[in-house]
Amino acid sequence: MPTVINPDAVPKSLVSELIRPSQVHGSLYTDPAIFAEELTKIWFKTWVFVGHESEVPEPNDYVRKQMATQDVVMTRDRDGDIHLLINRCAHRGLQVCDDQKGNSSSFRCPYHGWTYRNSGELLGYPYNKGYGGKGRLELGMGKVPRVESYRGFVFGSMADDGPSLLEHLGAATGEIDRLAGLSPKGEVSLDAGWLPHKTRANWKFLAENETDGYHPQFVHGSIFGVTGSPIGALYSDASTAVTRALGNGHSENDLRPEFRKFAEPMRWFGTTPERVPNYVAAMREAYGEDAERRMIEGAPHVMIFPNLFIAEIQVFNIQPNAANECISYATAVQLRGGAELNRRMISQSIGSVGPAGMLLADDTEMYERNQQGVSMLDPEWLDVRRGLVRETTDEDGFTIGAATDETGMRGFWKQYRALMEA
Ligand code: FES
Ligand SMILES: [Fe+2]
What is the E.C. number (predicted)? Predict the structure, then answer.
């Protein structure tokens, strides 16, 4: 007899009643059962940013990474292919790779000495007669089944099939292209080292905040004041910048209208062509007339769902540990062929998102207070309606709002809901 599926018997996602067009429920940030559901439906399914190819430049290089709750090793094998191995021995489950990074064609488990190739296959096991001889075990390290890169940015998906990386990235590819297009060689590297910041807050507070243009004037007012930074004005009521939902949960603060108004190359970086003459010359050499446009418009400010945030000159990788804890890894963008800028990018990044980074400390304080606040019972809902009344559609069909609108957040929740209800 054919199996009859009763739709009422299929368990409904926990989130269905918790997301409204202009409100989200506080329990989305605190409930361990929802976090468990997110792991299976988002983090172990969609494309997750893991790292950058420039972190493993040579054959047999490896570096440890986090994919949500999973400890993975990003390796480059002898043929140059990138793998993401789950750091767990196929024998008794021990963590196989202990060093944070290095160069090795194989890994040896410290417990009983099983060895694995850096592409995950089992190479050997001691005293093999106990298993009936050599080559009898069809075991290996677990592997993230799908690994793909876009312009060196490495993503993994724990699902065997589903949309391709390009389908997932959609319009966000253009933002990564914009960043790479600021390098005279058309390439960025993310090899300056990642600083991990543990935050006692739900990962979604970080993802939502990354294109929230409503908060900078208030949260970062003191640092803007001390440094005389013009950033605050980019996110004021008078700003011509827009917030754009790019589809698939991605969103950006498009600051280009503001920079085009001034039409000054390198203003986006707070400098002038005279102060970085070699970089400007290399850009003109590489891109001809288009170099001016690139240097005026600057770098993107884009949140790529669920965990890659390109904040002009820094990149963040957000990884959740639990409903109330995540780690945000930050690094300075390095532009190939942009030595003059690269040094400055590192020192500016140390000041803003380093161990005592001022911007990061400001934001983290908000995330953690937010987390504490949502465990209070009343009112139950958070409000995300800002700008809903004035949203429009741009010429490419994307939803746009003003610089301070919550358009990006609503785009995030749309994708979140689609994945959780799938
Ligand atoms: S647990 Fe790894 S070799 Fe035994
Ligand atoms: Fe901020």
Answer: 6.2.1.-
